[in-house]
């Protein structure tokens, strides 16, 4: 290390240029680094969605879900298969092992489902593999003023979509609520009978009426010309004049109307609207994309008064807020660290030299992040916020040692170099030990590893940069700045030395006291409830109105509009969006929902009390007795499942699993802090099934005939207002009773007959949704839990489930947030154990002995004492981030012990062990306290600031780090010397006996 320091002094000009280049590269990297909310990470899940309008849940389960499940049975890496079949939709979700290449898995799934033959009139299977890069940048709503024609609307929609798509960095633009106009031909049964026209004659009404064909060429007037035939239907009136049979026009036997219906309903502030969901591409800057989206919005709002574009939600704004808040906390942390150094050093020049390491280390970190292809997000910025206190640690130790030497010796370059080299081993070992904590991340689960890796790399780059700065720039600047500086000598604290000497004489007493505190803190932690990371966003509120399946669409929408009116009249709401139904665009992104569900998103005004709004909206539930009204704070990332415990009841017998699920719900519901218990065991509805006598008729032909009579039949298309509009014949029959069903006439081999003569209708109640898990039927019971009591409630649920005795063939599988929390915490504990082993190995390499590193490692066991004490004092519930804070502390707290023991080892070359300990503790107390208090000061903004949604850099992490660091620092100064002397008790006792004998001999003389 001394060669590195000498090299810096020997190339001063080069060092100045390097410093300028590093700062410039850091600024440049900051301006070009992509900004996003979360780092890109694959979710090990693939969803396959299919929409089938008019198909009931049973038909979707039998004709769509079943064949898809069979085709997907052999997919490699698959761990679980979940499917849901409902009225008009089917969705299959595949869970994969965390080591699976998800891009390859998606291709394999697409190939498998592409070979499945699905029924007519259902959509193709939409396959989506979820990734954090799919989190939309902007949700933009488009509404039109009255009087805008459909043709103009369509043209404007397409232009806006094209402009959004053309933005540099945009990955995809999805539309929701887009009108799907069609021409409906509604047969009049009485008029058909009067004119003697069969219904089947309507099916061929468009046949041959439109054409666009080249029929040949000819020579006319000496020139070759082409001959074409063109015919187009362009309006409803022309369509009405088409002959059905000779002498009878279509308009005489049917109503022909233009239907501007939509696949799904979407409204904004009470008006029909369209929603553009804009996602960024990989490696794109979310902030830049968001700004360009706003430019397009401003352009259209200014140029076209008939257009009203609004941003409902902008995640790019949240990214800007995240970056700004984290940078603010980084700067505040740097300020607090500077104040601490100034108070201890009482020298402005030395303080200025020390804090140079912060901008230099940050600049180098940003450059390395840029080289590594890592984005600026809440995790990397959180890593910087946490690391900022450690950035000055190495520099503090170096400058303090230089400062201390110059108090006693005359200034010279050699003294500066020697003082820096004296602590080089200690700060290198401490930095490597801190970095080593993050090496075992390979043991973590896939998603957890993907999220923590950017954080760990940021910490690693920051600490390595600070080490390089401390060993090169700091000594060089010290030699220049402190050359003519007047330095007052700071004596070690005599009181502290006397306290330590007293403890060394009674070492078992402080060690036993520390052990009792450790056991008590661990026992306290085990009894504390463990919470979930709060990822709610009070700027948005989600509301849902859920009716039972089978409820008429008119009733659902009527009440949906009623609730919409109430929400629009609230003074604290800035924007209300309303949606209902499924569409192909949403299905492409794995989003399907029951047609009886109406969803609302409320954008709250700034300063509005979201919790009060939630309670007031919930109070409206009495006005909708047949529906379930749910209200919650909205976060498009959390999905509302972050604090749910789920119990899957699986088996082959639906009746058995249904009864078991009811028993499970009865056991869970009374548990304290269980907010809500529900299951996917839906209400049943009436189903009429036609059982055909195979000897009397062909079931396939009858099914085809009934489908044509009872469902819309597409018969062609017409060109209207510059767009192609499909034409369909509406159902001719709408039976209202069993009698009418039985009187339906069908064609058989023997001619037309009433359907009751060849088949019979059987009435039964069937489920409105069908759920499968790995091919078996299952019912999922979900318990929403108070976030701060997640672990306790999860344990109580496990206890209650032990009293449930399921029938043979029925199994209970517990999962959800509680299980995930336990798995994540266990992963972190495993990481902690491996980290301690790696840190110990580094210490052995550094000190070339086994005993001294044991004393250093002992400082880690003081961490739980301070961490638990901090949580108790602040009343914060420990969560995953708190445990991660303990893991981080392993690397941070050993720094103090390394600096202390390194001095002890130097002293042992010329002193007995006890004297070496007393001198080292007295000398190193100031730099140890300075580094600890500087780190605590840098973490304070995280305690009092607002944690970002879903971030691991939370208030609980900061409190654990501060509490653990404060207590471990104090105990390190007292207990580590006791443990060190205990490890060398024979040698130390022998040295004290020799010293005592020498004193006695000298006294005798």
Automatic annotation (TrEMBL):
Keywords: Membrane, Transmembrane, Transmembrane helix
Highest taxon of source: Bacteria
Membrane-spanning ranges: 12-30, 326-345, 352-369, 381-403, 415-439, 459-482, 508-528, 825-847, 854-876, 882-904, 925-944, 956-983
A Pfam family per the record: ACR_tran
Protein name stated in the entry: Efflux RND transporter permease subunit
Species, as recorded: Cohnella cellulosilytica
């Amino acid at each position: 290390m001394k060669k590195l320091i000498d090299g810096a002094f020997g190339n001063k000009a080069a060092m100045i240029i390097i410093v300028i280049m590093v700062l410039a590269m850091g600024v440049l990297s900051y301006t070009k680094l992509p900004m996003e909310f979360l780092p890109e990470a694959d979710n090990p899940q693939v969803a396959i969605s299919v929409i089938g309008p008019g198909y009931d849940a049973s038909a979707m389960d039998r004709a769509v879900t079943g064949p898809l499940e069979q085709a997907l049975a052999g997919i490699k890496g698959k761990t679980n298969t979940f499917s849901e079949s409902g009225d008009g939709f089917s969705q299959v979700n595949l869970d994969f092992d965390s080591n699976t290449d998800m891009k390859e898995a998606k291709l394999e799934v697409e190939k498998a489902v592409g070979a499945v033959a699905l029924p007519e009139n259902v959509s193709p299977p939409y396959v989506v593999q979820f990734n954090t890069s799919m989190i939309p940048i902007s949700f933009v709503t488009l509404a039109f003023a009255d009087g805008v024609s459909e043709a103009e609307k369509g043209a404007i929609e397409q232009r806006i979509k094209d402009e959004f798509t053309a933005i540099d960095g945009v990955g995809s633009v999805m539309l929701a609520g887009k009108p799907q106009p069609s021409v409906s031909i509604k047969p009049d049964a009485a008029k058909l009978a009067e004119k003697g026209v069969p219904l089947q004659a309507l099916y061929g009404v468009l046949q041959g009426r439109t054409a666009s064909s080249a029929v040949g060429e000819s020579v006319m007037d000496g020139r070759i010309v082409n001959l074409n035939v063109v015919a187009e239907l362009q309006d409803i009136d022309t369509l009405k004049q088409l002959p059905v049979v000779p002498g009878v026009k279509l308009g005489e036997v049917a109503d022909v109307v233009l239907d501007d219906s939509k696949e799904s309903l979407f409204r904004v502030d009470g008006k029909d609207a369209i929603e553009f969901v804009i996602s960024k591409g990989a490696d794109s800057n979310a902030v830049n994309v968001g700004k360009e989206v706003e430019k397009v919005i401003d352009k259209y709002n200014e140029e076209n008064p008939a257009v009203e574009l609004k941003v409902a939600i902008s995640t790019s704004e949240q990214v800007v807020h995240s970056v700004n808040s984290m940078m603010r906390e980084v700067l505040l942390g740097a300020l607090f660290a500077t104040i601490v150094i100034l108070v201890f050093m009482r020298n402005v020049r030395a303080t200025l030299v020390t804090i140079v390491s912060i901008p230099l280390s940050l600049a180098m970190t940003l450059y390395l992040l840029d080289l590594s292809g890592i984005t600026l997000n809440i995790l990397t910025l959180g890593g910087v916020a946490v690391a900022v206190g450690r950035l000055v640690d190495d520099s503090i130790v170096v400058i303090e040692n230089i400062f201390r030497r110059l108090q006693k010796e005359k200034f010279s370059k050699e003294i500066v170099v020697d003082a820096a080299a004296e602590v080089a081993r200690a700060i290198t070992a401490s930095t490597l030990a801190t970095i080593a904590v993050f090496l075992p991340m390979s043991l973590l689960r896939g998603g957890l590893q993907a999220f923590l890796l950017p954080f760990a790399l940021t910490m690693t780059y920051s600490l390595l940069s600070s080490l390089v700065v401390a060993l090169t720039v700091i000594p060089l600047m010290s030699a220049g700045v402190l050359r003519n500086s007047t330095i007052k000598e700071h004596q070690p604290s005599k009181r502290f030395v006397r306290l330590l000497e007293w403890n060394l004489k009674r070492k078992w007493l402080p060690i036993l006291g520390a052990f009792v505190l450790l056991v008590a803190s661990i026992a306290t932690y085990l009894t504390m409830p463990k919470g979930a990371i709060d990822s709610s966003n009070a700027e948005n509120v989600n509301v849902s109105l859920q009716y039972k399946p089978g409820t008429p669409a008119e009733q659902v929408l009527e009440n949906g509009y009623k609730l919409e009116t109430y929400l629009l009249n609230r003074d604290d709401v800035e924007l209300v969006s309303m949606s209902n139904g499924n569409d192909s665009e949403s299905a492409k992104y794995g989003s399907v929902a029951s047609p009886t569900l109406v969803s609302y998103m409320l954008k709250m005004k700034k300063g509005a009390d979201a919790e009060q709004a939630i309670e007031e909206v919930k109070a409206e539930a009495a006005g909708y007795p047949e529906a379930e009204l749910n209200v919650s704070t909205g976060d498009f990332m959390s999905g509302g499942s972050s604090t749910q415990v789920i119990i899957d009841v699986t088996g082959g017998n639906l009746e058995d699993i249904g009864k078991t699920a009811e028993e499970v719900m009865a056991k869970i519901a009374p548990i304290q802090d269980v907010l809500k218990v529900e299951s996917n065991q839906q209400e049943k509805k009436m189903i009429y099934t036609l059982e055909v006598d195979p000897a009397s008729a062909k079931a396939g032909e009858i099914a085809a005939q009934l489908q044509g009579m009872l469902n819309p039949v597409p018969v062609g298309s017409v060109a209207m207002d510059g767009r192609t509009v499909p034409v369909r014949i509406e159902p001719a029959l709408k039976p209202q009773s069993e009698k009418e069903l039985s009187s339906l006439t069908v064609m058989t081999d023997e001619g037309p007959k009433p359907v009751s003569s060849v088949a019979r209708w059987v009435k039964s109640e069937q489920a409105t949704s069908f759920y499968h898990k790995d091919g078996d039927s299952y019912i999922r019971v979900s318990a929403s839990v108070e976030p701060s009591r997640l672990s306790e409630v999860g344990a109580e649920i496990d206890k209650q489930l032990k009293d449930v005795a399921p029938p043979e063939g029925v199994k209970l599988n517990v999962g959800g947030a509680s299980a995930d929390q336990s798995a994540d915490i266990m992963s972190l504990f495993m990481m902690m154990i491996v980290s301690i082993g790696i840190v110990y190995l580094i210490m052995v390499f550094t000190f070339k002995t086994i005993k001294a590193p044991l004393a250093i490692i002992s400082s880690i066991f003081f961490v739980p004492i301070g961490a638990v004490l901090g949580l108790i004092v602040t009343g914060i519930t420990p969560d995953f981030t708190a445990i991660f804070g303990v893991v981080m502390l392993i690397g941070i707290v050993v720094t103090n012990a390394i600096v202390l023991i390194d001095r002890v080892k130097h002293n042992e070359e010329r002193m007995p062990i006890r004297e070496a300990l007393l001198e080292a503790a007295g000398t190193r107390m100031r730099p140890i306290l300075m580094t600890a208090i500087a780190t605590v000061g840098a973490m304070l903004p995280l305690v009092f600031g607002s944690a970002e949604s879903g971030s691991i850099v939370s208030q609980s992490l900061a409190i654990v780090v501060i509490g653990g660091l404060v207590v471990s620092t104090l105990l390190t100064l007292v207990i580590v010397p006791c443990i060190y002397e205990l490890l060398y008790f024979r040698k130390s006792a022998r040295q004290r006996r020799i010293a005592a004998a020498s004193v006695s001999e000298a006294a005798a003389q």
